[in-house]
Write a structure and sequence with these properties.
Mean pLDDT: 85
Distance between the termini: 71 Å
Largest sheet: none
Low-confidence stretches: none
Structural class: mainly alpha
Radius of gyration: 19 Å
Oligomer: single chain
Helix content: 55-70%
Strand content: under 5%
């Protein structure tokens, strides 16, 4: 029981490098896309924003390009 009180008294330090690792952005996504990532994230037990970030990071690291053809 003593260990619990010791941990309760400890104060965590904020990661001073965190602001350099992540950048806050505002992005507008359609509802279907958000729901898709939320359901995937739920199945994998991770936050959906983390899943979106992982997906975008994979695209950036592998230089993936969107291939579309617009129909007239």
């Amino acid at each position: 029981m003593e260990n619990i009180t010791i941990f309760q008294k400890m104060k965590g330090k904020k990661n001073s490098y965190l602001k350099h690792l992540k950048q806050s952005v505002t992005i507008r996504l359609d509802r279907d896309s958000v729901e898709y990532f939320k359901s995937l994230a739920n199945k994998n037990n991770i936050p959906y924003q983390t899943l979106i970030n992982l997906y975008l990071r994979d695209c950036a690291m592998n230089h993936r390009r969107l291939q579309t053809q617009w129909v007239d």
